[in-house]
Amino acid sequence: MSAPIQATTPAPIAPAKIVRFNAFAMNTVGHQSPGLWTHERDQSHRYTDPDYWLDLARLLERGGFDSVFLADVLGVYDVHGGSPDAALRHAIQVPLNDPLVLVPLMASVTRHLGFGVTCALTYEQPYSFARRMSTLDHLTRGRIGWNIVTGYLDSAARNLGQPAQLAHDERYDLADEYLDVVYKLWELSWEDGAVRRDKSAGVFTDPAKVHPIRHQGEHYRVPGPHLCEPSPQRTPVLFQAGTSSRGRAFAGRHAECIFVSGPSVAVVKGYVDGLRGAAREAGRSPDDVLIYGQALIVTAPTREEALAKHEDLKRHVDIDAALTLLSGWTGVDFSRHPLDATIDYLDTQAGRSALASFSSADPTRRWTVGEAAAFIGLGGRGPVFIGDPAEIADQLIAWLDATGLDGFNLTYALAHETFRDVVDLVVPELRRRGRYREAATADDGPRTLRHRLFGEGDGLKATHAGRRVTLSTPDGGAEVVTVAALSTVAGGAAASTAVETAVLLDPDPASASPSSPTLFSLSIPLTEPVA
Ligand SMILES: Cc1cc2nc3c(=O)[nH]c(=O)nc-3n(C[C@H](O)[C@H](O)[C@H](O)COP(=O)(O)O)c2cc1C
Question: 522, 498 in Cβ contact below 8 A?
Fold first, then answer.
């Protein structure tokens, strides 16, 4: 006799992940498609015109993009041929204006779009930088993000008072301490209730609720307090884009959103797995980070039109310009190598991922210099998806499934035509499939960028719960703790007692090594008022 059939509850099916879009731009001509500025339809030569940026902001808002990511470097690309000539001739990220000042402009015509702005921490003191970010977080009503970079161009260091840039791993060590300082300024210096604006009592700020941070580290000494009152997010959403082993460790510790660039599923999947692993090692959930892969979309209403468009774009790629870009990214002067030479990996003091993505990151593929230049010529170091809107949606979803990405950091070939095609053709197709956020309605209140990305909360806690931090205790000792929720440390009434009580959960001396994150190494009671 057969066993009675038992009713089973079917396992709940997880809803399919939405596809996220981020727009990759820079306050310059061309950006990631060297040579394309010469195309008659490209508008990027208008980068000095405020309307150029206002139009882009309105377009991305209409398309429901998570954010616009504004890249930046502080030097010229002079590795190729040992001079800036090629960069100047081909407009390879020069001329280049400041990205930060675009933000209030673009924020003034949008309510939801986030801003991931690149600022190199290497050349600026954390105290003044923290104020600039707080100001922008106020002015955008909580939509600012910071792409944390340490730079990769020696030309930047030489112009900013250093003989050469710091060595690769040292830059990340510096960055860890920098983050330590700015977290303290943003999260711990002002309690939530510090600003009273009490006209009848004549008290604007309660001094008992504003604290020094007394940071004394290897590179920085910052007594505090922070100059700004708490902004909607306090800490801007933290973006990062390094995949070397040191870069991954840094990202695992700090990043909430990560950008990766790789030419194939194999390379990108390797990056994604490594980065999620690094988040786990830092005591966070691997899904606490959103990872966006670089990509270019070439689309049109029909497949034939899209293919023709792609052929037309390819005709404007300039190989010498592409090599100028690649040389700057990698620190290798590719003008000295024939186009048919194969690329091997070597450690340089520039960024390491760019070279690795055409060599060691995929051992099954050997790239020649010419192939790599042609590849990055259209859309930089990511794949190019070509087809009608349905074909594009299929490709995006297939990449998401195969790599574990959360979304795409979209480059353009033609400004702003490429993004307009995405917004008008691809976004509606993804929405039809339930794979894209719905259009914002008038009822959708403005949300902070962090809330919009992670679905809850405005503060760092939304993604940093679970991480381990080292606290210096008042008696000079150190204690490694797991943060249950950053709200217990960050601001508010709880902050005054958090150091001794709420935050000291799960002491874990095993991980108390010098490399442990030292997020809140406070050696002062948080209740201490400003002297
Ligand atoms: C998509 C993407 C965008 C980047 N944007 C910038 C940037 O705007 N400015 C900058 O100095 N570095 C930028 N970088 C470089 C990274 O900050 C980092 O230096 C690089 O990825 C190498 O890191 P790694 O050696 O740890 O792999 C970017 C990297 C990627 C992948």
Answer: no
ipTM for the whole complex: 0.98
Bridge partners for 478 per DSSP: 472
Q: State the residue for tokens 């830059």.
A: 171
Task: Tell me if 168 is assigned to a ligand binding site.
Answer: yes
pTM for this predicted structure = 0.87
Distance 427 CA to ligand 1 centre (A): 27
**72 CB near ligand 1 (under 6 Å):** yes
Q: Is the CB of 380 under 6 A from ligand 1?
A: no
Q: Which helix (H) or strand (E) holds 70?
A: strand 67-71
CB of 247 closer than 6 A to ligand 1? Answer: yes
Q: How many CA atoms lie within 13 A of 403 on its CB side?
A: 31
What domains are defined for the chain?
Answer: 20-189+226-453 (3.20.20.30), 461-511 (no CATH)
Find out whether 244 is annotated in a ligand binding site: yes
pLDDT per residue as tens, the chain (531 positions): 444 555 566 666 777 899 999 999 999 998 899 999 999 999 999 999 999 999 999 999 999 999 999 999 998 999 999 999 999 999 999 999 999 999 999 999 999 999 999 999 999 999 999 999 999 999 999 999 999 999 878 888 888 888 888 888 899 999 999 998 998 899 888 988 999 999 999 999 999 999 888 888 899 999 999 999 999 999 999 999 988 899 999 999 899 999 999 989 999 999 999 999 999 998 888 988 999 999 999 999 999 999 999 999 999 999 999 999 999 988 889 999 889 888 876 666 666 667 777 877 777 888 888 998 999 999 999 999 999 999 999 999 999 999 999 999 999 999 999 999 999 999 999 999 999 999 887 767 778 999 999 988 888 754 455 555 555 555 555 555 545 433 333 333 333 333 322 232 233 334 433 333 333 433 223 333 333
Burial-class residue 513 by CB neighbours within 10 Å (0-12, 13-18, 19+). Answer: exposed
Helices 389-403, 265-281: crossing angle, 10 deg rounding: 50
